[in-house]
């Protein structure tokens, strides 16, 4: 069942945007809850062996989720998500930034703008996630600039070689 | 000092050099013709690219040709793949969770 679910992951290097589209075998309400309720979110947001630990989540426009990704050695990486727009069950947007454990934003780490769209179709729900980087991570920046210079050509060439 | 592939592609001239020699091996002189910068500047970029192990030089008679080490380029692909993997893992965890939630409701 799982293998039939759509999963797209693309990077638009000219706009520093990551697109993630994924289909889930569940109704829109359940998928919405999984993305917007801290107790459910914490069960899957961190890829194992990391765990997600939300200190608080105030899911409303102008509200914030303050959470840590906790590593196997107990190391903590804190982040905030500031919710900027919410249309129940169909869309929400937030600004994401890295912080320290006291919620102080780290200006050296890149923040990004997230937009999540939920669409129900018969038996499944599709989530379209757009992550736009405002301050660019070094490599994202590099890849982006490279795109303009024709670096894609090399990557396409590489893809052809790898496909052989 | 050891350089890595991301330093290699951090500069627009170096990226252009990579694109040019991806098609075929080229001599420094032939490369320099494609740019407004000096021959020396091109040599400096070639040195950095060599230190990054992204290109190698080959002698053919009196000429030195620079060739692309295509395997090294895979590192960029691998880097992107990590992000894809994170999302894959995350979503398969969510699949399991949604299934559990559905079963509890029944």
From TrEMBL, chain A:
Pfam families: AHSA1. Coiled coil: none annotated. Gene3D superfamilies: 3.30.530.20. InterPro entries: ASHA1/2-like_C, START-like_dom_sf. Residues 26-162 form the Activator of Hsp90 ATPase homologue 1/2-like C-terminal domain. It comes from the Bacteria. Belongs to the AHA1 family. This is ATPase. It comes from Pedobacter ginsengisoli.
UniProtKB/TrEMBL annotation, chain B:
Gene3D superfamilies: Winged helix-like DNA-binding domain superfamily/Winged helix DNA-binding domain. SMART domains: HTH_ARSR. GO terms for molecular function: DNA-binding transcription factor activity. Residues 1-88 form the HTH arsR-type domain. Pfam families: HTH_20. It comes from the Bacteria. InterPro entries: ArsR-like_HTH, HTH_ArsR_DNA-bd_dom, WH-like_DNA-bd_sf, WH_DNA-bd_sf. NCBIfam families: HTH_metalloreg (NF033788). This is Transcriptional regulator. The lineage of its organism: Bacteria, Pseudomonadati, Bacteroidota, Sphingobacteriia, Sphingobacteriales.
């Amino acid at each position: 069942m799982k293998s039939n679910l759509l999963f797209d992951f693309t990077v638009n290097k000219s706009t520093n945007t990551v697109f993630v589209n994924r289909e889930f075998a569940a109704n829109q309400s359940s998928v919405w809850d999984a993305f917007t309720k801290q107790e459910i979110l914490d069960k899957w947001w961190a890829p194992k062996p990391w765990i997600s630990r939300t200190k608080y989540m105030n899911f409303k426009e102008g509200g914030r989720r303050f959470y840590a990704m906790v590593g196997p050695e107990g190391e903590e990486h804190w982040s905030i998500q500031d919710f900027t727009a919410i249309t129940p069950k169909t869309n929400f947007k937030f600004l994401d930034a890295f912080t320290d454990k006291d919620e102080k934003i780290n200006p050296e780490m890149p923040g990004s703008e997230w937009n999540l769209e939920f669409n129900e179709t018969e038996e499944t729900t599709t989530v379209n996630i757009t992550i736009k980087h405002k301050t660019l991570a070094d490599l994202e920046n590099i890849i982006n600039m490279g795109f303009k210079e024709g670096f894609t050509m090399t990557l396409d060439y590489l893809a052809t070689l790898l496909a052989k | 000092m050891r350089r890595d592939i991301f330093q290699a592609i951090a500069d627009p001239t170096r990226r252009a050099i990579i694109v040019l020699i991806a098609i075929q091996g080229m001599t420094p002189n032939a490369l320099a013709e494609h740019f407004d910068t000096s021959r020396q500047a091109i040599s400096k970029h070639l040195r950095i690219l060599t230190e990054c192990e992204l290109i190698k030089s080959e002698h053919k008679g009196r000429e030195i040709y620079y060739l692309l080490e295509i395997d090294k380029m895979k590192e960029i692909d691998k880097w992107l793949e990590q992000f894809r993997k994170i999302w894959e893992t995350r979503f398969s965890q969510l699949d399991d969770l949604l299934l559990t939630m559905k079963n509890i409701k029944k």
